[in-house]
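Appendix B. Extra example for self-study. Work through it before the problem class; the solution is given directly after the inputs so you can check yourself.
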Amino acid sequence: MSSSQTPNVSKVVLAYSGGLDTSVIVKWLQETYHCEVVTFTADIGQGEEVEPARAKAEALGIKEIFIDDLREEFVRDFVFPMFRANTLYEGEYLLGTSIARPLIAKRLIEIANQTGADAISHGATGKGNDQVRFELGAYALKPGIQVIAPWREWELSSRETLMAYCEQHNIPVDFAGGKKKSPYSMDANLLHISYEGGNLEDPWCEADDDMYRWSVSPEAAPDTPTYVELTYARGDIVAIDGQSMTPAAVLAELNRLGGANGIGRLDIVENRYVGMKSRGVYETPGGTIMLKAHRGIESLTLDREVAHLKDQLMPKYAELIYNGYWWSPERKMLQAAIDESQQVVNGEVRLKLYKGAVTVVGRRSADSLFDEKIATFEDDAGAYHQKDAEGFIKLNALRMRIAAGKGRNLL
Amino acid sequence: MSSSQTPNVSKVVLAYSGGLDTSVIVKWLQETYHCEVVTFTADIGQGEEVEPARAKAEALGIKEIFIDDLREEFVRDFVFPMFRANTLYEGEYLLGTSIARPLIAKRLIEIANQTGADAISHGATGKGNDQVRFELGAYALKPGIQVIAPWREWELSSRETLMAYCEQHNIPVDFAGGKKKSPYSMDANLLHISYEGGNLEDPWCEADDDMYRWSVSPEAAPDTPTYVELTYARGDIVAIDGQSMTPAAVLAELNRLGGANGIGRLDIVENRYVGMKSRGVYETPGGTIMLKAHRGIESLTLDREVAHLKDQLMPKYAELIYNGYWWSPERKMLQAAIDESQQVVNGEVRLKLYKGAVTVVGRRSADSLFDEKIATFEDDAGAYHQKDAEGFIKLNALRMRIAAGKGRNLL
Amino acid sequence: MSSSQTPNVSKVVLAYSGGLDTSVIVKWLQETYHCEVVTFTADIGQGEEVEPARAKAEALGIKEIFIDDLREEFVRDFVFPMFRANTLYEGEYLLGTSIARPLIAKRLIEIANQTGADAISHGATGKGNDQVRFELGAYALKPGIQVIAPWREWELSSRETLMAYCEQHNIPVDFAGGKKKSPYSMDANLLHISYEGGNLEDPWCEADDDMYRWSVSPEAAPDTPTYVELTYARGDIVAIDGQSMTPAAVLAELNRLGGANGIGRLDIVENRYVGMKSRGVYETPGGTIMLKAHRGIESLTLDREVAHLKDQLMPKYAELIYNGYWWSPERKMLQAAIDESQQVVNGEVRLKLYKGAVTVVGRRSADSLFDEKIATFEDDAGAYHQKDAEGFIKLNALRMRIAAGKGRNLL
Amino acid sequence: MSSSQTPNVSKVVLAYSGGLDTSVIVKWLQETYHCEVVTFTADIGQGEEVEPARAKAEALGIKEIFIDDLREEFVRDFVFPMFRANTLYEGEYLLGTSIARPLIAKRLIEIANQTGADAISHGATGKGNDQVRFELGAYALKPGIQVIAPWREWELSSRETLMAYCEQHNIPVDFAGGKKKSPYSMDANLLHISYEGGNLEDPWCEADDDMYRWSVSPEAAPDTPTYVELTYARGDIVAIDGQSMTPAAVLAELNRLGGANGIGRLDIVENRYVGMKSRGVYETPGGTIMLKAHRGIESLTLDREVAHLKDQLMPKYAELIYNGYWWSPERKMLQAAIDESQQVVNGEVRLKLYKGAVTVVGRRSADSLFDEKIATFEDDAGAYHQKDAEGFIKLNALRMRIAAGKGRNLL
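Solution. Structure tokens for the complete assembly:
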């Protein structure tokens, strides 16, 4: 879209949830741009039926309606590659929202190509990260695409004006669904559910326990631990307790196990790409287990320097994903390095899940680099020469000895 | 020490625990090097009386005996500076052993200077990291010092030969203390206790619950959570629940609170600097709380780019400490950057401790950069112009749009 | 400035060169914003008189006129700190324009504070990096300041419309100066002169030799080399050929020496922060010498790991300066580390300047870490034990030997 | 080799130059280890005939003699991949020696496998980097191999004792070759020639001009510049002035061109991996041209963030190669990222060579990301919206504005 005037748009693909806000957007796009609207609704594991969106779209006069089940693609091509890097944003956040956006952006563009649309649209606000993620992806994949971000354009910035718009345009408010409106701004997919706004806007205020949807509280979790065994192949989980599963099934099952044991709640203040701090609370049961387990299997199979290099690259990689640069050449470059490292990340990890905590209690692998003969505290029968350590230390110390000998003082 | 022959040593300062092994070393040094031995025993919070080491040393004929309480120095000058960086080795390990070694090295050299000794000695083996940490520190602080590492030199490599040596030299075996000999190799200080060896040498084998000394198991922890409030000044904790405390008192109290709630157990396979993998289990109750809390207060007070830069530097900083380079110019250089960032890390963090998990539930600060007016989901009265986001995204996307326009394909 | 409407501005401080463009801006500000204009003109070594700007400003009706000689501050507080890091953007560019902008931004804000102005303005276009550098600095130092960037707002985007505006408003065109208008867009200060535009917009086209202003061509330089000796204290040059000089005098003299020997021409394609590539040609005679010399003195005095850490941090530091983040907490954090490293960077470097090339031919220092006794190929009388190397190699190889022993293949 | 006693060795592969030192090693190995010796002599472009080594080896009683021309493999699989990263060690050194060692190590192991040898041997001293590079490579590729490093073992540490050994064992001293013995320790291959020792051991002393072998001095170079055009495909040079060439032919031709124009001399103090500083002088005519040219073609074709990421990774990559870790999983991991970036590095670079300086004067590519329509200073017909810059700057400044608004002071 041009910066200064309303552009000519003939057809726009909208990321349509079926909810009230995006239903208003349909109408607003039709009115404001006098264009055809194509809706796209995806199941990425948010836990709500997507099929009802069809009837709602039809009621709004939409002719081209796309409803896709993207759960396997989401986990296989986005979640799993990200977890290969032990990715954490700002030391804490598992990037549950961030990693879903590039998939949506890709599908929006694919549908635009297929339907001959010249624009895409989404329901993200002008204050958040999601607008950036959608739009960077769209521009990177189709540079001439126009982007319409209604929340940055329209005047419907309060709930009241939005409701008035609905009444005026005969948009049934039950589009919002039968559920009581949550006081929080939420986002869900197979990796996580997030909560922002409401009383969370005071970072000193503890989140209410009844806010959470996917996990029981640690206090309410079972009094006996659950043990689970994960099988890795090339850095990805391929089986749980010996049973092979697809990527989406793996994540769904780990969500179930984690949620039942009170695992994966996170309460943080994070730094948005647009420049402000915000407070977010997340439930990521399966992801929390996966991060711990992946470090466990890597600890046995990865070379030390490869592991350290990965740790040094990770914050940058996490930042790229958080900021919306999944579809960028620098992310691809880092992914090439990360994926190269994962060929040997095979084996099993055994975990204990108990009242909010996940602990690695065992790991084994045919690709293990752990060498009992050398590591042992017992007699190693000559596998390791302790005398070698003297030269090792002497030469590592040499530069500092020379410096100290010339009067440098480190105290 | 020269690499090829027994050097001339007239006086050696030994890091002496009062236990059997270092008592044997006293005798062995006297016999092998015909030198005077100075013993140095430090209280760094390992939880055992250090005064009894005096009588034992005297019984071995030692004339110069140093017994120091280094707990405050340990926490103030080593533990706290390290925690300012949110330091984790290999994503998991809080460096409890690593961070104590440079203090011991420093005192060994100070005592060598004071007593005119020309050598130091320690009881670390030739397979581990501690020899490196002691010796790199010693060489960096006094380049001409000789280092005697008996475990790399002598033939007493098995328990049997060691016992035979004791008998032969009238070293009372009760020097080992009245406690039943643990099957594990252990190391303790105010930050942590570590366990290696025994059945832990199989990384698939879960640690026995009765191995742990400082913490109850999560299962045995109280059924109701404990809440605690920490006050930070310049990145360090200065009060708990509003009560000012010294650094060592802070850590001791957090160990008590954490241990009572089953917090801080960690079971990992780690990469040693000498080149092998080893399995270690750690209890770090207070440190686990401190890491989480420090991230909490930083999340509110640190600039985003400073926080991200710290995250990128941290793995290198952790590696330096793990590998024994505390007393190095590169660690000082990194510390200068880290400390520069901490001037604004002031405020309070509220935490929930429950059955092995520690959660930040609130944070507040006079130095907060959280701006409710801007972050709010409600109307912000013009504090933030959503329209700005369009230009922000457009220019951030420009390089990728140009590339895509010229045919680059990111899929 | 608000994004959507003309803000209320009562007084604006303009970075005023005295040239035609900024003179037009004076008039345009007065007309468009009906506000008072304060002009600020700085001598940062661009090689043109600044005093004539006074009469021109007076002729435009300006009452508050600031004309400052900032050359010493520029070199001392901006150029020298940057050179401590061996800073190069994209491996080539010495950041001559970038490093001057934060000083201008700082003075604009100081003058705004002093005169009670509520806005600043500048003559940078909307396509370049300089607008970003000016404005990021201004916002960081005075968050409520308004910024007016005429080139992003007005309609005078071509030379013709600009000239028409002059005629219409009686702005004498000789404000452009008597010099023939260069076909290039140029920027000069004590560190460099830059050229963009014109036939340089074709990256395959070689720059004309008569474009250059500060340096003779290598072909025209003397047939005998010039030798020069620089004295460093804490990483900064304090004397040339034994003669103490102020920072600005150092840089002026090195520009003279370099320019006379054809040194410091650079022709590159660079990546702008706003997302496009541009072709720039630079003359940086003194800076080119300083970079080479600083590496020379560091090579003798810096610890290896400190030097390597600096090299790893440098690209980020360069990027910060290029992108306009001098006045940021992350730049300060990096500077703290860099400056910490420079305490020992003292001594002399001897250089050969010849027909475009600068070569270090000698370096010496009381803080040298070069140890002839150890480095010698001759007998070192036991200063270094070659046997130590065996253990050093063995343990450094251990992780790879274990891996290969377990079947890993690196070929 | 065991650290403490002479190991049992039945057959050893020696990196044999045919010179005096390695001829002495042949004899010494036969005598000391009573083992069979296999010699391996490689042409890696050092500029001396390798075939004469055959007769010398035969005269020493060697039965298995390997003489290989490795020039193409050297440039194709080692030099070119390294140059894709714009690799410089400590900001200056093109790693000419370092990059040849892993190839030698690989061939030593291949020959050991082929001949059933259980050990390798080399003529590198115990003070340098080359021993590390040979041995790390050997251990990584064949973990059970024994390594014999005579210079670390024998007593022949002075020229006199060596000569006495020759006389005693009837080793003809003319093995040293007819050439006058250089006062420098030298190493040559197709990428460079290096000089150490002699009067270079004083870092203040300028190298004598008659030391250099491959390049004329800049003063003696032609008075008119030479222009050359290089063609790149996927980051490697495939043609010079339009003529396709093999990798080794490319480097040989660039050496010729560079040497004739006085290009590629470098005089530095560098930090060895074994802990000391040393002074080295290098001639790298072709490599110096290649570095400059590769940056030139990348500047046009690489995405900005990819380029910056490469710059941040480069120092680590250079350190790995310098320290001898070519055959390591972390080098492979970095190489995967680097190679991923090079798919688009195609096109032509035009260079000017003149009296020691190499300058890029033009670059063009079908994969160029330079967009004249956007970069132009002239009217761009709406290709770029200058207004977008305002939002870009505003949001990039937001975190600092909030901070300043809350009282943070960056001055």
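Self-check: Chain B has a mean pLDDT of 94. If your reasoning did not lead you there, revisit section 3.
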